[in-house]
Amino acid sequence: MDNVWSRPRKAPRQTLTLERIVAEAVALLDGEGVGRLTMRRLAERLDTGSTTLYWHVRTKDDVLDLALDAVFGEVRVPSRATMDDTTDGGGDGWHAPVRALIGGWRAALLRHPWSATILDRPLMGPNALERTEFLYETLIAAGLAAPKAAAYSLSNYVMGSVVMQVTWQDREEEGTEGFLRERADRYPALAEHGLDHEWDATFDEGLGYLLAGMEQARRQGTGRLP
Q1: CA-CA distance, 187 to 149, in Å (whole number)?
Q2: Selection from 208, 81, 69, 85 nearest residue 131 by Cα
Q3: Cross-strand bridge partners of residue 94
Protein backbone atom coordinates (compact mmCIF):
# COMPACT_ATOMS: atom_id res chain seq x y z
CA MET A 1 0.00 0.00 0.00
CA ASP A 2 1.46 3.32 -1.07
CA ASN A 3 0.41 6.32 0.97
CA VAL A 4 2.08 9.12 2.86
CA TRP A 5 2.34 6.93 5.97
CA SER A 6 4.14 4.03 4.27
CA ARG A 7 6.94 6.10 2.72
CA PRO A 8 10.21 6.92 4.50
CA ARG A 9 10.19 10.40 5.96
CA LYS A 10 12.58 12.79 4.20
CA ALA A 11 15.01 15.13 5.86
CA PRO A 12 14.25 18.89 5.94
CA ARG A 13 15.11 20.71 2.74
CA GLN A 14 15.96 24.40 2.72
CA THR A 15 14.58 24.74 6.29
CA LEU A 16 11.19 23.40 5.20
CA THR A 17 10.00 20.61 7.48
CA LEU A 18 7.00 18.33 7.27
CA GLU A 19 5.70 19.86 10.51
CA ARG A 20 5.69 23.33 8.91
CA ILE A 21 3.86 22.01 5.88
CA VAL A 22 1.18 20.36 7.99
CA ALA A 23 0.71 23.39 10.25
CA GLU A 24 0.34 25.73 7.27
CA ALA A 25 -2.01 23.32 5.52
CA VAL A 26 -4.27 23.19 8.59
CA ALA A 27 -4.26 26.99 8.78
CA LEU A 28 -5.17 27.26 5.10
CA LEU A 29 -7.96 24.70 5.48
CA ASP A 30 -9.30 26.41 8.60
CA GLY A 31 -9.42 29.74 6.83
CA GLU A 32 -10.53 28.78 3.34
CA GLY A 33 -11.73 25.16 3.24
CA VAL A 34 -10.75 22.10 1.23
CA GLY A 35 -11.75 23.60 -2.10
CA ARG A 36 -9.07 26.29 -1.86
CA LEU A 37 -6.21 23.95 -1.02
CA THR A 38 -3.78 23.46 -3.89
CA MET A 39 -0.13 22.58 -3.86
CA ARG A 40 0.68 25.91 -5.48
CA ARG A 41 -1.22 27.94 -2.86
CA LEU A 42 0.36 25.95 -0.06
CA ALA A 43 3.85 26.53 -1.49
CA GLU A 44 3.15 30.26 -1.75
CA ARG A 45 2.03 30.43 1.88
CA LEU A 46 5.19 28.61 2.90
CA ASP A 47 7.23 31.04 0.82
CA THR A 48 8.88 28.22 -1.04
CA GLY A 49 8.85 26.64 -4.47
CA SER A 50 6.70 23.72 -5.51
CA THR A 51 9.80 21.58 -6.03
CA THR A 52 10.75 21.94 -2.37
CA LEU A 53 7.19 21.17 -1.28
CA TYR A 54 7.10 18.04 -3.46
CA TRP A 55 10.28 16.87 -1.73
CA HIS A 56 8.09 16.10 1.31
CA VAL A 57 4.63 15.37 -0.13
CA ARG A 58 3.66 14.06 -3.53
CA THR A 59 0.05 15.08 -3.86
CA LYS A 60 -2.79 17.11 -2.37
CA ASP A 61 -4.14 13.84 -0.98
CA ASP A 62 -0.93 13.44 1.03
CA VAL A 63 -1.46 16.90 2.49
CA LEU A 64 -5.08 16.16 3.39
CA ASP A 65 -4.12 12.88 5.06
CA LEU A 66 -1.47 14.65 7.12
CA ALA A 67 -3.76 17.55 8.04
CA LEU A 68 -6.59 15.27 9.10
CA ASP A 69 -4.26 13.23 11.28
CA ALA A 70 -3.02 16.45 12.86
CA VAL A 71 -6.62 17.12 13.91
CA PHE A 72 -6.76 13.68 15.53
CA GLY A 73 -3.57 14.60 17.33
CA GLU A 74 -5.49 17.29 19.20
CA VAL A 75 -7.61 14.61 20.90
CA ARG A 76 -6.23 13.79 24.33
CA VAL A 77 -5.91 10.08 25.02
CA PRO A 78 -7.68 9.48 28.36
CA SER A 79 -5.91 7.94 31.31
CA ARG A 80 -6.58 4.23 31.76
CA ALA A 81 -6.67 4.92 35.49
CA THR A 82 -10.24 6.15 35.02
CA MET A 83 -11.39 2.64 34.11
CA ASP A 84 -12.18 -0.25 36.42
CA ASP A 85 -14.11 -3.48 36.15
CA THR A 86 -17.39 -2.17 37.50
CA THR A 87 -19.85 0.38 36.20
CA ASP A 88 -23.33 1.50 37.13
CA GLY A 89 -24.13 2.45 33.54
CA GLY A 90 -24.08 6.13 34.36
CA GLY A 91 -20.65 7.04 33.12
CA ASP A 92 -18.32 5.32 35.63
CA GLY A 93 -15.79 2.63 34.86
CA TRP A 94 -15.18 2.07 31.16
CA HIS A 95 -17.81 4.67 30.23
CA ALA A 96 -15.66 7.55 31.46
CA PRO A 97 -12.65 7.06 29.15
CA VAL A 98 -14.90 6.29 26.19
CA ARG A 99 -16.91 9.46 26.79
CA ALA A 100 -13.69 11.46 27.13
CA LEU A 101 -12.23 10.08 23.91
CA ILE A 102 -15.39 10.42 21.83
CA GLY A 103 -16.15 13.88 23.21
CA GLY A 104 -12.61 15.05 22.51
CA TRP A 105 -12.78 13.60 19.01
CA ARG A 106 -15.98 15.50 18.28
CA ALA A 107 -14.59 18.75 19.67
CA ALA A 108 -11.44 18.49 17.54
CA LEU A 109 -13.41 17.88 14.36
CA LEU A 110 -15.73 20.80 15.08
CA ARG A 111 -12.76 23.12 15.61
CA HIS A 112 -11.82 22.30 12.03
CA PRO A 113 -15.14 22.00 10.14
CA TRP A 114 -13.39 21.14 6.85
CA SER A 115 -12.40 17.83 8.42
CA ALA A 116 -16.04 16.72 8.27
CA THR A 117 -15.86 16.78 4.47
CA ILE A 118 -12.95 14.32 4.22
CA LEU A 119 -13.82 11.73 6.85
CA ASP A 120 -14.29 9.17 4.07
CA ARG A 121 -10.50 8.92 3.82
CA PRO A 122 -8.71 5.88 5.32
CA LEU A 123 -7.66 6.92 8.82
CA MET A 124 -4.19 5.38 8.76
CA GLY A 125 -2.15 8.13 10.43
CA PRO A 126 -0.40 7.50 13.75
CA ASN A 127 -2.63 9.87 15.71
CA ALA A 128 -5.85 8.29 14.42
CA LEU A 129 -4.51 4.77 14.95
CA GLU A 130 -3.32 5.49 18.49
CA ARG A 131 -6.76 6.72 19.52
CA THR A 132 -8.55 3.89 17.75
CA GLU A 133 -6.24 1.43 19.48
CA PHE A 134 -7.13 2.97 22.85
CA LEU A 135 -10.84 2.65 22.05
CA TYR A 136 -10.51 -1.03 21.14
CA GLU A 137 -8.38 -1.78 24.20
CA THR A 138 -10.94 -0.10 26.45
CA LEU A 139 -13.88 -1.97 24.96
CA ILE A 140 -12.07 -5.30 25.14
CA ALA A 141 -11.05 -4.72 28.76
CA ALA A 142 -14.67 -3.85 29.59
CA GLY A 143 -15.70 -7.36 28.54
CA LEU A 144 -17.51 -6.64 25.30
CA ALA A 145 -17.37 -9.70 23.07
CA ALA A 146 -17.91 -7.60 19.94
CA PRO A 147 -15.45 -4.69 20.37
CA LYS A 148 -15.29 -4.10 16.62
CA ALA A 149 -19.05 -3.56 16.38
CA ALA A 150 -18.99 -1.32 19.46
CA ALA A 151 -16.06 0.75 18.14
CA TYR A 152 -17.74 0.95 14.73
CA SER A 153 -20.94 2.25 16.31
CA LEU A 154 -19.14 4.85 18.40
CA SER A 155 -16.85 6.13 15.65
CA ASN A 156 -19.67 6.36 13.12
CA TYR A 157 -21.82 8.15 15.68
CA VAL A 158 -19.25 10.86 16.31
CA MET A 159 -18.41 11.31 12.63
CA GLY A 160 -22.05 11.34 11.58
CA SER A 161 -22.97 13.84 14.27
CA VAL A 162 -20.19 16.19 13.20
CA VAL A 163 -21.17 15.98 9.54
CA MET A 164 -24.80 16.69 10.45
CA GLN A 165 -23.93 19.64 12.70
CA VAL A 166 -21.56 21.26 10.20
CA THR A 167 -23.98 20.73 7.32
CA TRP A 168 -27.05 21.89 9.23
CA GLN A 169 -25.39 25.03 10.54
CA ASP A 170 -24.53 25.95 6.96
CA ARG A 171 -28.12 25.35 5.90
CA GLU A 172 -29.53 27.35 8.81
CA GLU A 173 -27.89 30.35 7.24
CA GLU A 174 -29.79 29.54 4.04
CA GLY A 175 -33.16 29.54 5.82
CA THR A 176 -33.77 25.78 5.95
CA GLU A 177 -35.10 25.95 9.51
CA GLY A 178 -37.65 28.57 8.58
CA PHE A 179 -38.70 26.50 5.58
CA LEU A 180 -39.48 23.54 7.83
CA ARG A 181 -41.23 25.59 10.51
CA GLU A 182 -43.61 26.94 7.89
CA ARG A 183 -44.62 23.34 7.19
CA ALA A 184 -45.09 22.27 10.81
CA ASP A 185 -48.61 21.06 10.05
CA ARG A 186 -47.17 18.44 7.70
CA TYR A 187 -44.19 17.52 9.88
CA PRO A 188 -45.36 18.10 13.48
CA ALA A 189 -42.89 15.72 15.17
CA LEU A 190 -39.97 17.30 13.35
CA ALA A 191 -41.20 20.79 14.14
CA GLU A 192 -41.52 19.98 17.84
CA HIS A 193 -38.41 17.93 18.43
CA GLY A 194 -36.08 18.24 15.49
CA LEU A 195 -35.38 21.93 14.94
CA ASP A 196 -34.03 23.24 18.23
CA HIS A 197 -30.42 22.16 17.90
CA GLU A 198 -28.86 21.91 21.32
CA TRP A 199 -25.93 20.14 19.74
CA ASP A 200 -23.86 19.36 22.83
CA ALA A 201 -26.73 18.10 24.95
CA THR A 202 -28.18 16.02 22.12
CA PHE A 203 -24.81 14.47 21.37
CA ASP A 204 -24.23 13.54 25.02
CA GLU A 205 -27.70 12.03 25.31
CA GLY A 206 -27.26 9.98 22.16
CA LEU A 207 -23.87 8.74 23.34
CA GLY A 208 -25.55 7.73 26.59
CA TYR A 209 -28.03 5.58 24.66
CA LEU A 210 -25.19 3.79 22.88
CA LEU A 211 -23.23 3.15 26.05
CA ALA A 212 -26.35 1.98 27.92
CA GLY A 213 -27.00 -0.66 25.27
CA MET A 214 -23.41 -1.85 25.39
CA GLU A 215 -23.52 -1.90 29.18
CA GLN A 216 -26.65 -4.02 29.13
CA ALA A 217 -24.92 -6.57 26.93
CA ARG A 218 -21.86 -6.53 29.19
CA ARG A 219 -23.93 -7.10 32.34
CA GLN A 220 -25.84 -9.93 30.70
CA GLY A 221 -22.53 -11.64 30.23
CA THR A 222 -22.79 -11.93 26.49
CA GLY A 223 -20.83 -8.81 25.59
CA ARG A 224 -23.15 -8.48 22.61
CA LEU A 225 -26.25 -6.45 22.04
CA PRO A 226 -29.51 -8.44 22.09
Answers
A1: 33
A2: 69
A3: none
Nearest to 82 by CA among 65, 98, 103, 96: 96
d(CA 40, CA 211): 46
DSSP 186: T
pTM score of the predicted model: 0.84
Q: What is the largest CA-CA distance in the chain?
A: 65
How many angstroms separate the CA atoms of 75 and 133, rounded?
13
Q: Does residue 197 come out as left (phi exceeding 0), alpha (psi in the -120 to 50 range) or beta?
A: beta
Q: What is the pLDDT along the chain (226 residues), one digit of tens a residue?
A: 677 777 777 665 567 899 999 999 999 999 999 999 999 999 999 999 888 898 899 999 999 999 999 999 999 999 866 555 444 443 458 999 999 999 999 999 999 999 999 998 889 999 999 999 999 999 999 999 899 999 999 999 999 999 989 988 776 655 666 777 788 899 888 877 776 678 999 999 999 999 999 998 888 865 455 4
CA distance 71 to 102: 14
Q: Which residues contact 50 (CB under 8 A, 6 or more apart)?
A: 39, 40, 43
Torsion of CA 134, 139, 140, 146, to 10 degrees: -130
H helices of 74-198, where? Answer: 95-111, 126-141, 147-172, 176-181, 188-193
CA distance 32 to 44: 15
**CB-CB contact of 63 with 42 (8 Å):** yes
